[in-house]
Amino acid sequence: MLTVDKVQVCYGKSPAVQDVSLRVAPGETVLLLGRNGAGKSTLLKSIMGLEPPCSGRIIFQDRPITGSSPCKIARQGICYIPEDRQVFSNLSVLENLEMGMLAHKKKLNRHESLERVFEYFPRLKERLGQQAGSLSGGEQQMLAIARGLVSKPQLMLVDEPTEGLMPILVDETAGILRRLRQDGVTILLVEQNYSMAMSLGEDLSVYFMEKGRILKHGDVKEFQAGFDDPDHWMKM
Ligand code: ATP
């Protein structure tokens, strides 16, 4: 579904992503791990068209999207859930979800799309009229994922959804990601919470980034075998 081929992304003259290649197959959840500053968010942004690569190719569903605008990429079926959530604080929960629906290239059935999302996030249904900015951090995170999901994306790019969440909400987020996976939603997930990431399934494909490059690639099992104390290692 997604092929990233030898991509390089620079901020000015400094390369933040170098020679990165990865693949995401339909229905797969792929993990992108690495420490702070490794280049994970930059890679997601480059796929979404927010930081276009200076070299390399990005192919989505057999079409090149390298250098396309974020709007065009969203209409092709990719949604991006940024690290810092970025919900529309002054809009209600419902209005945020309606904004998400605009990203789909066809007019979506409003009722059907919302009900599908409420199956994953029942709490949002109880708060439809509430201003998004007044939700708790965890609820805002759920809203950010829901706003992406409501657009019926072919591929979700999810950047550190558990950052700053209490352990109970980390577990809840992991549960939602597992469920999305079971339901065949394709996800490229950036995480720094190694334990949570590893709990998503043993057969998940994992890429580990360091200093802008892919240092390791394997499945969760192979990956775990390579680390004595992964939690410690990730935080170094
Ligand atoms: P984190 O988890 O902390 O977000 P990351 O792995 O996602 O880390 P990036 O945010 O992609 O890493 O950053 C990769 C490198 O690019 C870092 O050295 C960072 O300082 C730099 N960088 C990121 N955004 C910008 C920017 N807008 N302008 C200049 N340099 C940037």
TrEMBL record:
Stored CDD domains: ABC_TM1139_LivF_branched (cd03224)
Keywords: Amino-acid transport, ATP-binding, Nucleotide-binding, Transport
Protein name (record): ABC transporter related
Residue intervals of the ABC transporter domain: 2-236
Alphabetical GO biological process terms: L-amino acid transport
A UniProt-annotated Pfam family: ABC_tran
GO molecular function annotation: ATP binding; ATP hydrolysis activity; branched-chain amino acid transmembrane transporter activity
Matching InterPro entries: AAA+_ATPase (IPR003593), ABC_transporter-like_ATP-bd (IPR003439), ABC_transporter-like_CS (IPR017871), BCAA_Transport_ATP-bd_LivF (IPR052156), P-loop_NTPase (IPR027417)
UniProt keyword ATP-binding present: yes
Originating organism: Desulfatibacillum aliphaticivorans
This protein's record includes keyword Glycosyltransferase: no
Family: Belongs to the ABC transporter superfamily.
